[in-house]
């Protein structure tokens, strides 16, 4: 367990994160002309193959570091509040620490989503030195099965290492729906996360297009129990999931393409990981005009969307700027790209 000195150090780090976070939230309300969250992919390859995931392959090379730097600098020019590194499995990128440091250099909050398999004490301490501020691991079950190998049985030792060494905030996300065989596992995972001092959230697994999957009776019961356990954190802004659990649509303004950007390994800006294909503009050519257009563009997929991060950033602007359907030609082009 962490020493007294280590605990004090972490409290100071947490206070600094909270202060930076408050500043980012204030900036979110003051101006709508900058992204609040960008997911950026440094490598599409992953060391796992979870059945529900469509965001990986087993052969892609890392994006060259200099190209990643240029993309991060561009996001910095947009005054992006938070840049989250995702994948694939980002820990497979050989220069990940330099990428994290570049995010911090640009003034953005640095986050990462990982499956956790590659975490060892030395790697965690390198993440500390690079300036990582928060990390999320999704754990799908207690024991690995044919749907997912991201199990508590495999990852519990990694969680213990994070509890001992990590200076950054750790959130453990458990899931229900989408073919998970034992929904009650979510409670076991959530309670273990809290026991180790982490925050804990629950997600509803979407289908291949990021769309709604209604929960069964047992799954809904587990979902509400988990919601009661969740610690306060930005990732807890997930009330939209209450409707999803009942199979009901949400009425909201999706600000993807503006307040939220998904930048794939090829450097193209997409609405999100589940709606790739539009606007599909290279990040280096993305402009303030593109941000303003997408801010006002109504997304046809929004009512049944389960992509938490887009909901979370869009909540800041739910009360302003009505949206309008995309021009017919653009909508048709987007649908064609997705069909292909």
Features:
340 residues, nine-stranded mixed beta sheet, globular, disordered C terminus
Poorly predicted ranges: 331-340
- For the CA atoms, what is the radius of gyration? 19 Å
Percentage of helical residues? 25-40%
Sheet bearing the most strands, described? 9 strands, mixed
Portion of residues in beta strands equals: 5-15%
Instruction: Please work out how many helical segments DSSP would assign.
Output: 11
Order of helices and strands: HEHEHEHEHEHEHHEEEHEHEH
Q: Could you tell me the mean pLDDT?
A: 88
Query: What is the overall shape?
Result: globular
3D structure, described in words:
By secondary structure, this protein is an alpha/beta fold. Helices cover 39% and strands 14% of the residues. It contains 11 helices and 11 strands. The protein has a 9-stranded mixed sheet with strand order 6-5-4-3-2-1-7-8-9, with helices on both faces. Helix 10 links the parallel strand 10 and strand 11. Helix 2 packs parallel to helix 3 and helix 6 packs parallel to helix 7. It is globular, with a radius of gyration of 19 Å. The C terminus is likely disordered.
């Amino acid at each position: 367990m962490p020493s007294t000195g280590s605990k004090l150090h972490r409290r100071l780090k947490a206070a600094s994160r909270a202060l930076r976070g408050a500043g980012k939230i204030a900036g979110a309300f003051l101006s709508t002309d900058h992204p609040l969250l960008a997911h950026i992919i440094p490598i599409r390859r992953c060391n796992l193959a979870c059945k529900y995931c469509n965001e990986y392959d087993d052969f892609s090379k890392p994006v060259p570091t200099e190209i990643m730097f240029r993309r991060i600098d561009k996001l910095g020019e947009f005054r992006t509040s938070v840049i989250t590194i995702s994948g694939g499995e980002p820990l497979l990128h050989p220069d990940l620490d330099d990428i994290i440091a570049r995010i911090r250099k640009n003034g953005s909050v640095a986050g990462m989503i990982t499956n956790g398999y590659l975490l060892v004490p030395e790697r965690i301490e390198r993440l500390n030195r690079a300036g990582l501020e928060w990390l999320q691991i999704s754990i799908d079950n207690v024991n690995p099965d044919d749907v997912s190998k991201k199990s508590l049985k495999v990852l519990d030792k990694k969680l213990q290492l994070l509890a001992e060494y990590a200076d950054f905030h750790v959130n453990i996300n458990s899931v229900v729906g989408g073919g998970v065989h034992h929904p009650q596992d979510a409670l076991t995972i959530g309670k273990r996360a809290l026991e180790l001092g982490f925050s804990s959230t629950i997600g509803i697994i979407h289908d291949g297009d990021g769309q709604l999957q209604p929960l069964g009776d047992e799954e809904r019961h587990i979902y509400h129990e988990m919601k009661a356990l969740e610690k306060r954190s930005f990732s807890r802004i997930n009330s939209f999931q209450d409707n999803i659990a009942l199979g009901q649509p949400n009425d909201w303004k999706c600000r993807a393409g503006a307040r939220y950007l998904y930048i794939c390994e090829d450097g193209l800006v997409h609405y999100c990981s589940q709606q790739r294909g539009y606007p599909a503009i290279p990040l280096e050519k993305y402009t303030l005009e593109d941000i303003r257009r997408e801010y006002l563009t109504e997304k046809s997929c929004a009512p049944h969307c389960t992509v938490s991060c887009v909901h979370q950033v869009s909540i800041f602007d739910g009360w302003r700027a009505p949206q309008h359907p995309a021009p017919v030609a653009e909508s048709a082009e987007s649908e064609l790209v997705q069909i292909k």
